[in-house]
Amino acid sequence: MKLLQRKLNIITLMHSDLVPPESIEGLKEKDIQPWKMEYDVQATLQNMGHHVHPVGIYSDLGIVTDALDRVKPDIVFNMLEEFDGQVLFDQHVVSFLELKRARYTGCNPRGLTLAHDKALSKKILAYHRIPVPAFAVFPPGRKVKRPPKLAFPLLVKSLIDEGSVGISRASVVSDDVAMMERVELIHRQTNNPAIAEQYIPGREIYVSVVGNERLQTSNPWELVLEHLPEGAPNIATSRLKWDYAHQTKMGMTTRPAELDPDQRRNLDQLSKRIYRALHLSGYARLDFRMSTEGRFYLLEANPNPCLSLGEDFAEAMESAGMGYAALLDRILRLGLSYRGVA
Ligand SMILES: Nc1ncnc2c1ncn2[C@@H]1O[C@H](COP(=O)(O)OP(=O)(O)O)[C@@H](O)[C@H]1O
Ligand SMILES: [Mg+2]
């Protein structure tokens, strides 16, 4: 694939704590880890010949305004995942970029709003007859009462937080007392509502999608735990996501999912329908469970997922024939051509 010939003036926008250094020489893996995505994106864009201006923000939009005035970028490469410590505020920053008439990479504000709320997104998908787990939402400070139709086992998690915050094996509950305890734990840990979802036993499968109108999907990717203790649920707990020693102990690998051609086609079409139904744009990773009967249930859509080299999203696209520079190039083009809903 031919990359963009034109060299762009790019602002890379990120959390102020995650602005990477120019070089990683002499640094250890654990030092690099927190800002690895920011570094990989920045270094690759520079290697592609673009002019990159890193901008870190926490809660001051003035920094963005100043940078837009000073740099006059062709595009903002958006890697923000929160603003002022609030995960839902990232959509407002993208809205602000739209108000400033700046082009940006990744998802539009409407898609971010719909996808970040794990209940709202499921309500929309249910309208489109896309399989999702049944669920109930419990906001902090209200009585926790399970709707009688919502049957155990359930998995309790945060309605809006990412990265498996508050998810451990004990998150899969089989009675009201255990459910209540996990709901309270989520409230304490996150200050956000909890969602209790029908637990879907089966395989854990991710699909990467890139595009605005014409969509490209990756090979389905599977999380496999080869040494899971007998009877333990095969879920992506927070420990599994963040603790390397635990990953090794559990025999964790992520790899292309072996699916028969019909299942593969079905999942591919489903992924595109979900992406469109949630008004996503740019790129996203969709997290599914494949039930023991072979039915795919969407757990959540992740617009603007982690773009680190070697992480699931980039790996899955690579195995679909799109290398890292080509992927970033595609993301830039999609941002440049996105015209929004207005
Ligand atoms: N309804 C469910 N049934 C089975 N497993 C679930 C369910 N909800 C979440 N999980 C497990 O918890 C993990 C994290 O949940 P997810 O909704 O993807 O939140 P996060 O934003 O933290 O990734 C999933 O990857 C899956 O392993
Ligand atoms: Mg997830």
Describe the structure.
By secondary structure, the protein is of the alpha+beta class. The protein has three domains: 96 residues, no CATH class; 155 residues, D-amino Acid Aminotransferase, Chain A, domain 1; 64 residues. It is built from twelve helices and 13 strands. The chain is globular and about 60 Å long. Bound molecules: adenosine-5'-diphosphate and magnesium ion (MG). Adenosine-5'-diphosphate binds next to strand 5, strand 7, strand 12 and strand 13.
Q: Can you say what the CATH homologous superfamily of the largest domain is?
A: ATP-grasp fold, B domain
The molecules bound to the chains, other than polymers, are:
adenosine-5'-diphosphate, magnesium ion
- Sheet of most strands: 6 strands, antiparallel
Q: Determine and state the CATH class of the largest domain.
A: Alpha Beta
Low-confidence stretches: none
Shape: globular
Radius of gyration equals: 20 Å
What labels describe this entry?
single chain; alpha+beta; D-amino Acid Aminotransferase, Chain A, domain 1; six-stranded antiparallel sheet; 12 helices; globular; binds adenosine-5'-diphosphate; binds magnesium ion
